[in-house]
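Why this split exists: single-chain examples teach little about how molecules sit against one another. For that reason, every record in the complexes split bundles all components of an assembly together and asks for one structure covering all of them. Below is a record exactly as it appears in the raw files.
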Amino acid sequence: MKPERPEFPAPPDAPARRAARPVITYPPEALTPPDLALYRAARATAQKTGETLVPPRQARAFHVAAGSFFRITCTEGAQVGDLNLWSAADPAERFFSGKTRALHGTHLSTGDRLWSALPYLRPMATIIADTLDWYGFDADGASVHDVIGTRCDPYTHHLMTGAPYHHCCHSNLTRALVGETGQPAAAAEPMVHDVLNVFMATGFTRDTGQYFMKASPVRPGDYLEFFAEIDLTGALSACPGGDCSATHSSDAAACFPLLVEVFAPAPGALGGWQPPAVNGYDRTHGIAGK
Ligand SMILES: [Zn+2]
């Protein structure tokens, strides 16, 4: 049992301590902004080069070349998706939801970037369009497309229910990677990482700070579109929670397919654009007197 909290009395200067001014931890103006005008001009020239339909309670992998675009679309009904990204050249470089959250906030939208894990820490993709950007933050403090959740997984489900369930996003992504790479599940599973929760409406309760979800505002035709900053392998799971209005980690919710489409711009449309280099820190960590 948790103790009744607080267990310790507030000090006399508690109000003053609590009144300290919040400081944005990572001022966004310190980052080089994406050239959205360039990306959008290139997008206007782009042709569709492929598509992947992600069935309900399944995941599928896809590939996007650096300088191309991919769009995730809600098709037949409200459905959230769990997105993983890897560098196609080196799957050790994968999406880092925690640092992306620290840099951009709890929920992502147009102009925000998906950053890769240390020691790479560079933009993997940039959001160039979000038809749900009108939602903002609602009265519950919820918004859309979060980097605060992890992904539904059979281990947490087992902790809480003792039962197995094989179509959590974690397992769906694992199966998609097995199919994509030919690796056994034991090798593919550790590649799965914390996701961008596409279309999901989430927040933290204001009184207790607990993670919550509510019915996604997404409707058929809504989409989230990205510019691929590097050569990407992606995997998207159509979450068993459906619109995540009530439950997940079961077959109870109505679930629908999600569509991933890839578009390549006309040659030269990006001018002299080049994929970003990996992070410039020298990785010596103060060892050997540096
Ligand atoms: Zn899920």
